[in-house]
Amino acid sequence: MDKGTENKMTTLYLLRHAKSAHDAPCLEDKDRGLNSRGRAAAARLGRYLRDQGIIPELILCSTAVRTRQTLEILSEAAAWVDDGPEIRYENRLYLASPADIRSVVAAANAFSKVMVVGHNPGLQDFALELAKPGNKHIELLRDKYPTGALAVLDAAGHRWDSLGYRSLALTVFVRPRDLND
Fold first, then answer.
1. Which pTM does this prediction carry?
2. Is 110 exposed, middle or buried (0-12, 13-18, 19+ CB in 10 A)?
3. pLDDT by residue (tens digit) across 93-151?
4. How far apart (Å, rounded) are the C-alpha atoms in residues 135 and 6?
5. Is the separation of the CB atoms in 105 and 12 below 8 Å?
6. Which of 43, 99, 134, 180 lies in disulfide reach of 77, CB 3.0 to 4.6 Å?
7. How many CA atoms lie within 13 A of 138 on its CB side?
């Protein structure tokens, strides 16, 4: 472990894209955008992040239209537009497996607060791999990772390139329906 990282808090935010539209069968899956419910949920989550003072340093986002739209709406509602996190669009995150997500996150060691905006089932499986057992949020996460849901995993002294199995504390699991306007 690097000197100075042993007490440094690292936080991983795993955000599943908001609800997407299914009304245009001619579109490829990657090209589907958000429906009105998804837009509202992304804005609600953005306001939650703003109210909680949550600002990731780096956002790694799938290149799918629905993830990009989720991030755009969320960022505006969170008031990150002018002075927000660095954003990297990663094609490898489109419908990524936990191993793919892990490899993208592993390259982010320069950042202590990293958000991934992606898809299920990869995000849910990745969160369950990382989360320590015995947490009140685990059963909710295990049961369902709905669209627009955010899992927050914390640990002291971790490097993203050496994440261990069940090594992070799942401190928050919030779903759009949990939030009030």
1. 0.93
2. exposed
3. 999 999 999 999 999 999 999 999 999 999 999 999 999 998 889 999 999 999 999 99
4. 23
5. yes
6. 43
7. 12
